[in-house]
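Kindly draft a polypeptide, keeping tokens residue-aligned:

***
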Amino acid sequence: MGSPGKVVRELDAEGQAKLIRSALGYQANAARFATSLRPVG
């Protein structure tokens, strides 16, 4: 699948917290969509 990724920069604590909040938002949306979306048509 290609070569492994390389570290471009390290995340500080604030960057890590933002990344975690973003991931939690995606998880919340996925759960919401899984229960509320219906096929169109």
